Catalase
Amino acid sequence: MTDPRPILTTRQGHPVYDNQSLRSVGERGPATLENYQFIEKITHFDRERIPERVVHARGTGAHGYFEAYGKIGSEPARNYTRARVLTETGVRTPVFVRFSTVIGGKDSPETARDPRGFAVKLKTVDGNWDLVGNNLKIFFIRDAIKFPDMIHAFKPDPVTNRQEPWRFYDFVSQSPEALHMVTWVKSPWGIPANYREMEGAGVNTYKLVNDQGVAHLVKFHWQPKQGVRNLTSAQAAEIQAHDVGHATKDLYEAIERGDCPEWEFCVQIMSDDEHPELDFDPLDDTKRWPEDRFPLLPVGRMVLDRNPDNVFAETEQSAFGTGVLVDGIDFSDDKMLQGRTLSYSDTQRYRVGPNYLQLPINAPQPAARAHTNQRDGQMAYQVDPAGSNKHVNYEPSSVAGVREAPRPAKEYHQWVEGHLGRYQTTRTSSDYRQAGERYRSFEDWERDDLVANIGGDLKQCPETIQLRMVWHLWHCDEDYGRRVAQTAGIDLERAKALPPLPGRAAPHAALPGTTYTEGRREAPSPQRETTSAK
């Protein structure tokens, strides 16, 4: 049967053959700069709101400091990285942290069921390092090209202006990689009690690089010394009845009374290769690295001890980007990381302005003052340092101006070889396995709340979405699927009888005998769409 929906196109009218995958060199990347379809899509998405953030609009922040232990586990940190912020002891690196919700607007309640942003700006002696993460250690998707679609599905309906459960589960039911994150978010872990008793994670996979130019894959984690505490839906509703900003109040008052929250900074480390022994790709942000095989190794501690003097000037104008790294910390080929690195800074230039890095909250500390040839632009106010030659705003120059820094003794070089094309990972069995393991790891009260939340949501969804979601959950864990089906009044046997999704889990893939809400579909892929690259 011919699909009657119109073909999805770019804004230039070009048919979109693959709306799930960045163009990359081989299945694992890296992504390439000529991803025009992605750049057009993400830069438009970055500009959908002004001046409020498109995501993470509701937030609060605090100042503090970070201290490195000088070790990663029991080994000297310099064995893994040359980043001085992680290797030098006795140094207090200033930090600013912004906590936030994701989907809701600036005045939405902090009891919302939603991932929490955990963004840390470390003003190191070598310049800023932004570690932009969430409270949960994974994410819904593993390819950045899907991010605008995901947020659109989770944001309010453009017609009803309400967050509709069917939109959320319609997207999730066609994106099995999201099942792991859904299992976390719909459990009590989706509503942290406050920001002080909440974990943080970089989520993306980065690399640590040492003086010898040797790299290791790394995941970053913040573990609260105050412990972790989450809320059930009933507890959150009780708080929301009288306070929509309880977490902001809790953090502010704790710091004011001297009860300063503290987190231990930990890393997981893995050799820099593909790890075929794992049933997931270590670069896949929808998966956790098992801690029994890749333990959390302490690296340092962070303390928040000062509230902002002005919320707008500091918290709201603070701007973070995943591309803001210091020497010794590098990018991996994580497709979410590579996409976010373009998107985050692009958003800040649009939302705050091209000179957002001149603002005190975003500028590096004096020891690492910026010296660039970037000039002018909206709201520029910084002038060249006294005594410099103001006539030379270019490089190289034999007269004056700035010069390149000395190269490290041994630079990190990554060999890249593969066919350029659009790829989805072939290691997908853990899409179900890790979600099932998470379900079984919860305590009884957490499972009860999870089942009640998903079951209640699915009651508000069309039958086609109900059946497919139960099919997914049953494949994660039979008890999981059975209990949700019972709660929502869904026929489990009909759900189990569904065929698997097509090999390529498109967001609007039609199921036999079902009718979907009208929408666009991807264009058929050309028979051959690869070129070679070395």
